[in-house]
Amino acid sequence: MSVLHIVEVTKTFPGGTNAVDSFSLDVADGELVCLLGPSGSGKSTLLRMVGGFEQPTGGRITIDGEDVTHLPPERRPTGMVFQSHALWTHMNVFKNLAFGLKLRHMPANLIKEKVEAVLELVGLAGYGDRMTTQLSGGQQQRVALARSLVLEPKILLLDEPFASLDQHLRERLREEVRDIQQRLKITTLFVTHGQDEALSMADRIVVMANGKTEQIDRPDVVYRNPQTPFVAGFIGTMNLIEGEVQGGHFVRADFTVPLPIADGPATLAIRPESLDLAASDKPGASVHRVTDYGTHGLVDLDLADGTRLKSMVAHPDLFRAGQGIELLPRAVAAYRNNQQIYRSSP
Predict the structure, then answer these.
(1) Among 275, 268, 345, 285, which residue's Cα sits nearest to residue 321?
(2) What is the CATH number of the domain that holds 275?
(3) Of the candidates 191, 213, 230, which is a domain's last residue?
(4) Which residue in 51, 46, 60 sits closest to 7, CA to CA?
(5) Are residue 120 and residue 17 in the same domain, yes or no?
(6) Same domain, 107 and 184
(7) What whole-number distance in Å separates Cα of residue 301 and Cα of residue 322?
(8) ABC transporter domain spans which residues (predicted)?
(9) What pLDDT score does 346 carry?
(10) How much is the pLDDT for 86?
């Protein structure tokens, strides 16, 4: 069992800035949880506190029931992989991986066995004699992962490990890391600001903003049922429209949608894939631009007051700039006072 508990953890930097504010999270044995948020949301600071590289101002961190809140990194059962790889360039790959094992006074034959096994695991068998400077960025990141895994940590910490790689390599590596994590069943806390990484890798996503939790849920739930306007706007592409509810209808410019909530201001949320279009001569919306991505099209639309919306369509060739359009939402959500108050089914 390798269970991580973060209880009411706070980090306040000099000057009174709260980087993390009363944050709590339980990560189950073998679970991969992603901390997702924009720069400055506190996700990396939180990860560094779990790893022992930052000290919390308040709160408690336990691993398998042991309080590790104030232990230094070398005394915690954690392994951390940094964005910068942090490899020793004067050592070859084998020595990079063996260093931590030597500090544990492990016999040389066992060190060799463990290093070779973990290199095989990350797809770098036979690379032990190479200098780290001779490796590509992706290979260096595999070595950084192997260096953490060879120590057999209870908790694996990943701090935006793919951020410096190109998109194709990033996609391939995240699949490989997820496969390794599931094979080893190692409890993992992963930081990223990339939505695709979070949605494709995580068992659960923690969306953070201003040091606090906005929503914790499975990736599909976070995408399909965001609980706050921030989550709705941050995860994927979302049309967020400010308007008024009057007599059971949401109104913005000439755009109206039935909405069975009390009158007053509201924010309407519609995913582009849930916004159907039909040609129309009535006042409403018009096509601003059409982009054909091959597999689908994206239509940028303007309401009468200039509000810009997006719709995903199967046949972009049916639309042209300036065309009048009727908007036909298949699923909507509504927010008031920063909370979801209504959600329709598609």
Answers:
(1) 285
(2) 2.40.50.140
(3) 230
(4) 60
(5) yes
(6) yes
(7) 9
(8) 4-235
(9) 64
(10) 74
Residues 149 and 119: their CA atoms lie apart, in Å, by 10
Quick: pLDDT tens for 40-84. Answer: 899 999 999 999 999 999 999 999 999 999 999 989 999 888 877
Residue 32 has pLDDT above 80, yes or no: yes
Structural domain tally of the chain? 2
Q: Which residues pair with 299 in a beta bridge?
A: 290, 311
CA–chain centroid gap for 188, Å, is 13
**Cβ pair 277, 297 in contact under 8 A:** no
Round to whole Å and give the CA distance between 107 and 270.
60
Q: Which letter, b or e, does each residue of 134-146 get, where b requires 16 or more Cβ atoms within 10 Å of its Cβ?
A: ebeebbbbbbbbb
- Gap between the terminal Cα atoms of the chain: 40
Joined tokens for residue 265: 């201001």
Contact 209, 230 (CB under 8 A): yes
Residue 54's domain comprises: 4-230
Indicate whether 118 and 259 sit together in one domain: no
How far is the C-alpha of 317 from the C-alpha of 145, rounded, in Å? 46
> CB–CB of 20/47 below 8 Å?
no
Which residue's structure tokens are 């560094």? Answer: 48
Distance (Å, whole) CA 140 – CA 132 = 7
